[in-house]
Write a structure and sequence with these properties.
118 residues, mainly beta, 53% strand
Length: 118
């Protein structure tokens, strides 16, 4: 069972930067995707950014140009560099991992809170 451990997050003023990191206990060989979701209480979890094992990245429109997702396969790590943060970026951020095969199950991190003050 893959486990994900997140670090980073915290309180920052609007316009500031934060970096989130997530380390996996293992990465099963084969195609996979890692990335970040975020969730505000009372709302659905939102996909923020993804990076495949091949290095392809995607972003939700609201963070394009401000956030950068990256991964280091040798360290089994995915990171999210967040810049020009806005109060609306305030949320709990969750790392995830999924093998991109039929029946691939999403594994979640425990979540880390990001709070952006105005």
């Amino acid at each position: 069972q893959v486990r994900l451990v997140e670090s980073g997050g915290g309180l920052v003023q609007a316009g500031g930067s934060l970096r989130l990191s997530c380390v996996a206990s293992e990465i099963v060989s084969g195609p996979n995707v890692m990335g970040w979701y975020r969730q505000v209480p009372g709302k659905q979890r939102e996909l923020v950014a993804t990076v495949t094992s091949g290095g392809t990245t995607t972003y939700v429109d609201s963070v394009k140009g401000r956030f950068a997702v990256s991964r280091d396969n040798s360290k089994k790590m995915v990171s999210l560099q967040m810049s020009s943060l806005r109060p609306e970026d305030t949320a709990a951020y969750y790392c995830y991992y999924r093998r991109t095969i039929i029946g691939g199950v999403i594994v979640w991190g425990q979540g880390t809170q990001v709070t952006v003050s105005s």
